Amino acid sequence: MTAVERVFLSKIGDLPSTYVFRGQADCSWRLHSAATRRLIDYFDEDSSVIEEAYFSEMHWVYHRSVLLEPARNFGFGSVNGHRIPDIQLLAKLHGFGAATGFLDFFPDPLAALWFACEGDGTDGKVFVLDLNNGKRFRRILIEESEQSAEEIFRLSGKEKENLFFETSDQEGKAASESRREGLSVQAWPLIPTEAIRSIVIAATDKPQIRRELEGLFDFRRPALFADLQRFSAVNSPRLPLPQIEDPEFSLILGNQCYLQGDYPGAISHYDKSIELSPEDDIGYFCFIRGNAKAAVGDLRGAVQDYSSGIASEERLAQDREKKAKGITNGYRIRRLYFNRGNAMAELDELNGALEDYEQAIRICIQEGVRDSSYFMNRGNVNFLLNKYCDALRDYEESSRLGDSSALFNKGNIYVILGRFDEALQIYDEAIREGDDRSAVICNRNGVAAILNRIGGDGYVVSSPRYKDSTRRFVIEVSLRADANNRFNEFFNFHGIRGNIGNTSGQHLPGGKGYQGRPGFVVVVKGEEW
To answer: What is the pLDDT of residues 461-498, one digit of tens each?
Structure first.
């Protein structure tokens, strides 16, 4: 029995043609594409970066800004004057050694065994992958190959699939001398570990296996292709990444900092995004940076960013109206108004906040959109401005749109206005709708106790006043009592629920909004009239 049979063929058995193989000279190497290794090096060899939510997006931006766009700028993206598709260009770069997000596999297991037996002194490894797993892997169809790389890998809506293509299908004979015909599997960011099994090739067996393979198979070394080869060499995994001058890459770095709570770091990356971005994207980047500034407590800076974003988006909307008969990006503009309203509310600039919420709601209505949070937050500002009737209407609309907690605020206003019967009904409705927080139950029981104490109509409710610097409301209820039966009873209530937080982007938390107002006290007095 030969070493090839003993060490390898006896362990794989007879496998169907859907199985493919990859050999690596060192069994300790992870199954990472060259692009993944290069990005890990970019983050100071911190391999934990592959676990980050935005690593897949980072891969895409890397392929676009480091490989595809520069390669086309150098003239490598056309053949005989005809532009070749992105996937074919990536295949060529991959074939010449550039660090792409693909891994080479071979239908021939002995080809993979050859690469696993390179080098001495370390055990090698052959990875075995079944492409017939339809839930994990899908061939790039011929009609797809003409699409842009973004359409294939980013916008396909099949994020959980790893795509693959046959090298010969995509790049013809351009790199046929550099590697045997096989296929390339998308590994950005990773191939699922549960889809792979492996066979270790002991270092002591490598020399004998190589001798046996050399007598049976002709494995040639890569041939040099001058310019394209040099471009691919510059982008090999052995060389560090240059500074990526791409607004979306800076956005991804900022988002990672944001998710980690490093808001100053996020703001620094967002600064770079805004510096590099085209006019069409400035409004969005200002929106994201404004959220980071709000999260770190720089509300003035957040207001400035939201204002810049609004100005940018409205300029673009005016241009689009001229060019496309009124098509505007209302989705971005209303979110900017909403978040600016939140920041201004927290700064106690209530009239400005109210104007922003009203503008956001007007845009929603124009677009046929209803968002409960917009009415909830406007109701809070109306409440703080003592516009109780307006606040009640906002809370009713927010509740109608699905926010059961708006009923809690509505019940509080009825208590403040001395409309205790209606308050009890609203608290009970909130509980039936599923808002069973302790604050709701406490306030419900408090108003029930007040009603039990005051009985019928023989009482007078004073206008609410602030108790002290804590800004806690005091509402006094006076009952007729004789001189020998005077009393004071105090009922504590939980305060208005605060604003729903900022709308977010890029799957980031938007922020908490302002925190509402402290509770209030109802004092029931028995006194002589």
So the answer is: 887 777 656 667 788 888 876 666 677 888 888 876 76
DSSP three-state, residue 433: coil
Domains of the chain: 3-234 (no CATH), 245-369 (1.25.40.10), 388-503+513-529 (1.25.40)
Pick from 522, 528, 447: which is nearest to 487 by CA?
528
Rounded CA-CA distance 251/271 in Å is 9
Q: Which of 239, 236, 268, 228 lies closest to 251, judged by CA?
A: 268
Residue type at position 387: K
The token pair at 57 is 């997006």
Residue-wise pLDDT for 324-353, tens only, equals: 544 456 778 988 999 999 889 888 899 999
Q: Answer whether the bond into residue 189 is a cis peptide, omega within 30°.
A: yes
- Rounded Cα–Cα distance for residues 481 and 478 (Å): 9
Angle at 235 between CA 81 and CA 156, to 5 degrees: 70
Give 87-146 as a DSSP string: HHHHHHHHHTT---SEEEEBSSHHHHHHHHT-SSSS-EEEEEEETT-TTTEEEPPTTTTT
The structure's pTM equals: 0.65
Could you tell me if 374 and 364 are in contact, meaning their C-beta atoms sit under 8 angstroms apart?
Answer: yes
CA distance 73 to 61: 16
pLDDT: which is higher, 46 or 165: 46
Helices (H), 9-95: 10-12, 34-42, 55-62, 69-73, 86-95
CB 310 within 8 A of CB 333: yes
Q: Report the distance separating Cα 443 and Cα 445, nearest Å.
A: 5
Structure tokens at 245: 């001058």
CA distance 254 to 520: 41
Q: In a 3-state reduction of DSSP, which class is residue 311?
A: helix
Neighbours of 490 (CB within 10 A): 9
Structure tokens belonging to residue 323: 């060019």
CB 354 within 8 A of CB 382: yes
Strand partners, 129: 20, 196
- Which 3 state secondary structure label does DSSP give 199? strand
Helices (runs of H) and strands (runs of E) counted in the chain: 22, 14
Rounded CA Rg of the chain: 33
- Would you say 314 and 292 are in contact if contact means Cβ atoms under 8 Å apart? no
Q: How long is the chain? A: 529
Q: How confident is the model at residue 327, as a pLDDT?
A: 47
